[in-house]
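QA checklist item 7 of 12: single-chain prediction sanity check.
[x] sequence parsed
[x] length recorded as 456
[x] structure emitted
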Amino acid sequence: MTPQRENQLTLARILGVSEDEAAVKLEKRIAVTSSSHEAAALAADVRQYIERSVALSKSGDPADLEILIGADPRIRSDVKLFVSLSSAGISVGSAGPSHIDDCHPLLSAIAACYVAGFALCRVLGLETTHCPDDVLTVRFADLGVSPGILETNVDLSDTVLVGAGAIGNAFLFSLRHVTVSGELTVADPKDVGGGNANRCVYFDESSHGPKAVELCRRAQLDFPKLTLTPYLGTFSDVVKERGRVKRAIVAADSRRVRRSIQADLPFEVIDASTSGAEEIVVYSRLQPTYGACLACVYKHVPVEDARERDIAAGLGISIDEVKRQFIDEAIADKIAVSHPNLCARDLVGRAFDSLFKELCSTQALLLPSGEQVLAPFAFVSGLAGALLVVQLLRATNSAALGEPLGSETFFVNPWRRPNARMRKLRPRDPDCAFCSDAVRLEVMREIWQDLLSPSR
């Protein structure tokens, strides 16, 4: 799986065309033109996301689309997009001029995701299905950015970032713009895969080895007051060593992993996930409360069992073995029997779904309906990571004021204007495997009794 192939599969599924047709569309070129100092940071981030999906036009060369960021048109292109940015929000459309105010860099980072998405929508022919409006306008307040939270100081001691993939990369990429200190543990047992470079902003095609190590190594220079410490294991492994972990920032890629995180009893959870190419879910809560927990939000659904059956059948192992998530030596030997072209030694420690994805004839996991599981474009994961930072600031600021956030869930379509009404306090699921277990709730109270007020 290469970055280019992964993008082709995603676009082919979105448009309902062949992979070859998608490959032709992805040959489009986009130019990013900027002038002022204020525009430079935004332009740099836009280029980061664009070049992971389509080619960037070289300086002065013609392009299929030109993005103008605080500048006038300079090159020959079929489509022009004018970007305007202020502390209130961003707009991007075909009418100019472009005006860029000096504003907080986290706002610029959020804006870059929307600009990249709108540009890709126009150049790839997705207007009808994904971004039908002529102008995309985003108010930062609708994303939860309230006055004062951008100056919040966050101490990340006793915090674990769970997952060093696309959202984990994007989280740190946006976190560099706010004031953070302490030590952040980055936990991920997986190695960098062939398709990671098209979505992970700190990785490129030379990246290799454990994801956690590679992400910490590449991102550390952006954090003079924060120490990034890699951990080659799961969140559960971290908890077993430490006894408890106060805050889990969740950027994992599995519903099952998220439920397992809840079972390891973090006091605070900040989570973001992507559903294919069209939805981002942001969630947070302090434990224990009467609102939904992480296991409520990502409760078990039948399609998970179907996926595990497919993986088990494809690899020649049992469903119970697939549920272990990672390949040990004994299972590696079994897989190598079913797939003689594979070396058992090279399989140890790999995730089952990652291996299965590579072995499938389409090189993508399929749901029982035949629908492809999409790896979203880079800007989607980028926005998820940025919103994860916003939610961390919101939660930290609210806790400092003595008004902790409830169990809050926010749904965002990365291609369209956000709707503040999609931010809701979610009630507890009465059938939740975690919340309905009185013993687990009591253990939670005992573990965190030093941080709980009597009313909680």
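[x] summary fact logged: The chain has a mean pLDDT of 88.
[ ] second reviewer sign-off
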